[in-house]
Each structure stands twice: as structure tokens, then as C-alpha cells.
Design goal:
There is one protein chain. By secondary structure, the chain is of the alpha/beta class. It is built from 9 helices and 12 strands. A hairpin with a 2-residue loop joins strand 8 and strand 9. The longest helix is centred in the last third of the chain and has 24 residues. The chain starts with 5 loop residues before the first strand and ends in an 18-residue tail after the last helix.
Length: about 300
């Protein structure tokens, strides 16, 4: 007999976000094949169960099964691990609490797993900018997310738009790192370890979700910190599997990339978009150096430094 009782759990980790209501409304509107069922599991990572009133109101009219779990506090890995523990579904999806999914989102993720035989399906996240967002930011589309292919293979993932098959042995016992729960990158680490253990990833192009970019994140300083942290995560993961010589080579290579990005930024300074793209790329490589030497990850989330919630 299978250890799984539900078809799909859609997990939404939340932290003081009013946008959660829009996310839930979009999940309630999902169109699924008749043989598939799903539930929504909201995991509240606030110190107090601040999302409980919203959940109580939503449940009154929700046409789907909705559960609420309080997993304090201010560490997103605690919430994500709470989802792993609370779900008994074979398939577990994650979507962020500031994203909106189209009605075919979940079915598209599931269809990708079914047709490709992959263990993890990743969909794109399309940023939605307002009119006051700087032109260069919209031109570069700096806040959108999609899987990165290396040699034609996806080697890691993210938790903002994903469906995983928990029957995959590579995912058995895998947890989100509590040490990365306020810096971010916990999902990158999770899926990198899954890949190293043999999990296969696929891109679900039609499974798009949309994320409004708040003013607090439409800033160069926020993007720079995010890129630096992403580089730290990459460097940290390289450090796990490489010896000292390989780490030294990695530091040298990242240093050369920083120098190259600096030159490009200087030469393209009349173009705000090209200059900032080069600076942000260089900041990513600086973060890689930081991760390779074992520096402490910067804090981006929880009671955030930028004035926004997780």
C-alpha cells in the first residue's frame, strides 16, 4: 500500500503578506483533471499566527480543501520543512505567497512530470512591474525567474514555482537547511542536493506564475544584495564538494569574472541597463568568492532588513 494518501499538496509559506489572499484565490480557481485532487497547505512563519484570521475567512467559501499550520518563526526553512512533514501527498508543490497562478498552472506542472518522467518540474515566474519601476529594471526583467540549463541539464531549482514527486528516492529524507532560512538560498541548496543524489528536473513552460514587484524590491540595492547572496549560495555548494585546490581555482576564476564585469560596466556606462547588468553580474561573482571562503551568509529575509516581508 502506498504511503501517500493525497494526490497533490500545494504549500504556501507565508510571512505577514496581505497578498496571500490573491494567491489563495488563484489556487481555488485551478482546473484539474477529474482523477486528480489537491489540497492547499498554508504554513505561517510569523512569531504569532498572524495569517489565521485571513485563513478562517477564506475557508468559509473556499471550494477546495485548505489547511493552516503555524511554524514560527522568521526562518523560511522551518516553514518549508513544516510542509514536508505535514503533507502526506505523493506530489508536493510550492508557490510563494505573493504570486498568482493561472487556472492551468498546477495541471501543467503535473503534466510535465507525467510526460517527461522527471522528478521535479519547474515553471517560470514572470515579474509584474508598476509604472514607477525604473526603465532599465523592466528592460532587463531583473525579477523574473526561470530554470538555468547547464549543458542542457537543469541542476538545481527553486521553491517559488515547483512540483516534486516525493516517490523519488533522491528526495527521501532531504530537508531545507535551517542555516539558510534567513539568508535565502535554502531552496537552491535543497534542489542541488536532490540533483546530486540523482533527481531529474524538467521545465514546465506553460506553468507560469506572476509576481508583483513591490517598491521595496524595485531598487538596485535590493537586487545587488540578492545577487550577492545567490553567489554566496553557489560558492557554498561548490565548497561542499571541492577540495582546497579546486576552491582556490574557483576563487581565481570568480575574481577574473569580477574584473571582466568591472571593465564591461565601465565601457558601457552610458547605457544604464548594460552597466547595471554588468555590475549585478560582478556582484554575483563577489558572492561566489564569499561563499567559497566560508563567509557567513547575509540576511535577506525574516524581519527583513529592506523593510519588506519574506
Amino acid at each position: 500500500m502506498s504511503r501517500f494518501s493525497e494526490n497533490i499538496t500545494v504549500a504556501v509559506c507565508t510571512y505577514r503578506r496581505a497578498e496571500l489572499k490573491d494567491t489563495l484565490v488563484s489556487l481555488a480557481a485551478q482546473v484539474m483533471p477529474a482523477e486528480m485532487t489537491f489540497e492547499v497547505l498554508v504554513i505561517d512563519n510569523d512569531d504569532t499566527p498572524s495569517a489565521a484570521p485571513l485563513m478562517d475567512d477564506f475557508r468559509k467559501t473556499a471550494p477546495i480543501k485548505v489547511r493552516y499550520l503555524h511554524c514560527p518563526a522568521g526562518n523560511i526553512s522551518i516553514a518549508r520543512n513544516g510542509a514536508l512533514d505535514a503533507s502526506d501527498a505523493r506530489y508536493l508543490a510550492f508557490i510563494d505567497d505573493d504570486e498568482v497562478a493561472g487556472p492551468g498552472w498546477l495541471a501543467a506542472l503535473f503534466d510535465t512530470l507525467s510526460t517527461t518522467g522527471a522528478d521535479v518540474a519547474l515553471g517560470p515566474v514572470n515579474a509584474v512591474y508598476d509604472q514607477i519601476t525604473p526603465d532599465w529594471m523592466r528592460q532587463l526583467d531583473t525579477h523574473s525567474t526561470a530554470p538555468v540549463h547547464v549543458g542542457g541539464t537543469i541542476r538545481t531549482g527553486y521553491s517559488c514555482n515547483v512540483l516534486v514527486d516525493r516517490a523519488c528516492s533522491a528526495l527521501s529524507g532531504l530537508r531545507f537547511d535551517l542555516g539558510l532560512g534567513q539568508s535565502g538560498g535554502e531552496d537552491t541548496a535543497y534542489f542541488t542536493h536532490a540533483y546530486r543524489r540523482g533527481a531529474h528536473f524538467a521545465l514546465a513552460d506553460p506553468a507560469i506564475v506572476y509576481e508583483k514587484v513591490p517598491p521595496g524590491r524595485a531598487r538596485f540595492s535590493w537586487l545587488a544584495r540578492r545577487r550577492f547572496r545567490a553567489g554566496q549560495t553557489h560558492g557554498r555548494l561548490l565548497r561542499e564538494t571541492n577540495g582546497l585546490l579546486a576552491q582556490a581555482r574557483g576563487i581565481l576564476l570568480a575574481t577574473l569574472k569580477v574584473a571582466y564585469c568591472t571593465i564591461v560596466a565601465t565601457l558601457t556606462s552610458p547605457s544604464t541597463a548594460r552597466r547595471n547588468a554588468a555590475i549585478l553580474r560582478g556582484t554575483l561573482h563577489l558572492g561566489t568568492i564569499s561563499g567559497l571562503i566560508g563567509a557567513r551568509p547575509i540576511t535577506l529575509y525574516g524581519a527583513t532588513a529592506d523593510g519588506t516581508s519574506q
